[in-house]
Design brief:
The chain has about 300 residues and is mainly alpha-helical. Helix content is about 65%, strand content about 0%. The chain is built from 13 helices and two strands; from the N terminus they run H-H-H-H-H-H-H-H-H-H-H-H-H-E-E.
Length: about 300
């Protein structure tokens, strides 16, 4: 039993690494499916570049949008900011808000960068895109010391075209693939260096020590886990109480529930301050001595949005 708990604790501590590894496997699998099933280079000078670039950058753009869409931190900052712009920069801390957005964006870029790296290392999409460029510099670079047919049939290199000698086609194909792989490794190196520099800068500018920062991260994770559990439990109890009141045709029993102002305060973006020694907006709220325990007023339904407003 102790061995099982040790293994479970190890996987829980390494869940970020496991998540990124799983994401990498999905990216590799998705790229292989695209290359083998849906991707068919037209081998046409007018279409190669647009077609290859769409398959190279299109999925990366979709993954970026999905990464932002499923970011809880982004929606926590953005929700309600049109009606209350100060939610984006509480206490006038615009730099902290900008840093939060950069952190959210960098987290959403992980999957797109993985896709670009895998796609470039494979080379299929890059070969199709670059072979369709009708630029004299590009054509002169690939067709230097080649036959005249090279300039005319460069767009057909990703496909087996009989007009181009086999040896010449393979040489051009290897050049395109080598450039694609060089770009892929360049993206990997740049992403690794930027990530390392970002981590170094963040830790260097940290207002707390390494161990306290580690504790802070653990606390935020646990608070989120328990908040989800408490929210599910209380939502279930409130639903049962309302349904019981409806079907039994009687007044509902009193139910303690945070008011609207309390929800707003714990949903705000939190920045650490040495003078407060809190680790989240929730902790800052519950430790206040002047908390407002006024029950929430009866909400009014906004028919246009289908949401409850006050």
């Amino acid at each position: 039993m102790d061995s099982f708990q040790t293994v479970l604790r190890f996987f829980m501590n390494q869940k970020a690494t496991i998540g990124y590894s799983f994401m990498a496997l999905l990216t590799i699998g998705g790229e292989r499916v695209f290359s083998m099933v849906s991707f068919q280079c037209p081998c046409n000078r007018e279409q190669n570049f647009a077609y290859g670039l769409t398959f190279l950058l299109g999925p990366a753009a979709v993954l970026l949008v999905l990464g932002l869409f499923f970011s809880t931190r982004l929606w926590r900052l953005y929700t309600g900011c049109c009606l209350n712009p100060m939610k984006l920069c509480p206490r006038g801390n615009c730099f902290g808000c900008l840093r939060a957005f950069m952190s959210i964006f960098s987290g959403a870029c992980v999957a797109p960068i993985m896709w670009l790296c895998v796609a470039l290392l494979n080379g299929t999409f890059y070969e199709c895109a670059v072979s369709g460029l009708d630029d004299n510099v590009v054509v002169d670079h690939f067709c230097k010391n080649k036959t005249l047919a090279c300039r005319e049939e460069l767009a057909g290199v990703p496909c087996e075209r009989p007009k181009l000698p086999k040896d010449e086609r393979m040489e051009l194909l290897l050049m395109l693939r080598a450039q694609s792989q060089i770009l892929g490794w360049s993206v990997i190196i740049i992403a690794a260096v930027v990530g390392l520099l970002g981590a170094c800068y963040t830790n260097c500018r940290s207002k707390v020590s390494f161990l306290q920062l580690t504790f802070w991260k653990r606390y935020v994770e646990k608070e989120k886990e328990h908040f989800d559990a408490f929210a599910l439990e209380y939502a279930t109890k409130l639903a049962e109480r309302n349904l019981q009141s409806f079907f039994e045709n009687k007044d509902p029993a009193p139910f303690p529930f945070p008011n609207h102002k309390a929800w707003e305060e714990i949903s705000a973006h939190y920045t650490f301050s040495r003078s407060e020694q809190y680790y989240s907006t929730l902790q800052r709220y519950v430790e206040r001595t002047d908390r407002d325990f006024t029950p929430e007023k009866r909400p009014v339904m906004d028919l246009e949005r289908g949401m409850e407003m006050h």
